[in-house]
């Protein structure tokens, strides 16, 4: 019997397997519940006393040899399949992948881009770190102009010429400098102002600037464009243009949308008036056209600027602007289905 076991040990050492199934069959044959090793152990009691020691040793050697072989073959097979680009068990369920969500600012920005691209506007962008010319001077706000105080500016270090743009109107200037009319462009982006942070205002936020320059552009074109925009975005088509002042437009107006006074929230967000301000607009001041190299005799145009954060807060009932920059996943996850 001992010789037979020694033969089995030699066989186990020499064993080779191609597949997982071969290894498993080998394991069951030798190490399974009814396998050879178990059977020999059961024989132990019948072995003559003087042979018990040797018998025990060989049977243990057989068991260890078989087990080591199984382990070695399995490892070898796994390494081979990994080399071929397949790892392990192909029927194993996959790891769940968390789906991200678009940020509400991006959702609203994309909606606005869609609305304007339907009427032929392209998208343009400019730098957030701007120079004085593009943010102020070219926009009819020369040095010491009192209207510069309307926008509390962050300057970059001590250079008063370099600043964080206070509005996306700076992109108007860049676009007009680089392109000839007709111009139809919108410029979404982040802007910065040195303002106290609260539920309703932040030191950075987002705007979309619109610019239309061609021959014979009138205020009626501006109003119609804004009406189309608010109808598409809010489903509310009644707007009001309230006379206002911006140095870069003449005449200038503030854009109000009639929100209604049906619910308590309507009362709250419109301060009981039913009207909601969403931005500013006007006919581009001829001085601005001239500053940007466009003939103000031949061309006219309109411009407008609206706040994206404000609109996102309205559309998604967000009560605090700070939520938009805190990146709390519990907040962001709620926009998974929005777009
Ligand atoms: N730049 C202005 C602001 O940030 C918004 C604005 C008003 C933009 C009138 C315009 C405009 O293009 O015509 O307050």
TrEMBL record:
Tell me the cofactors it needs.
Mg(2+)
Q: Which residues bind Mg(2+)?
A: 250
Q: Which InterPro entries match?
A: aa-tRNA-synth_II (IPR006195), aa-tRNA-synth_II/BPL/LPL (IPR045864), Phe-tRNA-synth_IIc_asu (IPR004529), Phe-tRNA_ligase_II_N (IPR004188), Phe_tRNA_ligase_alpha1_bac (IPR022911), Phenylalanyl-tRNA_Synthase (IPR002319), tRNA-bd_arm (IPR010978)
Cofactor: how and how many bound: Binds 2 magnesium ions per tetramer.
Which one of the record's GO molecular function terms can you name? Answer: phenylalanine-tRNA ligase activity
- Would you say which domain of life the source belongs to? Bacteria
Q: What is its main location?
A: cytoplasm
- Which Pfam families does this chain map to? Phe_tRNA-synt_N (PF02912), tRNA-synt_2d (PF01409)
Q: What is its EC number?
A: 6.1.1.20
Note the subunit structure: Tetramer of two alpha and two beta subunits.
Report the protein name in the record: Phenylalanine--tRNA ligase alpha subunit
Q: Which gene encodes it?
A: pheS
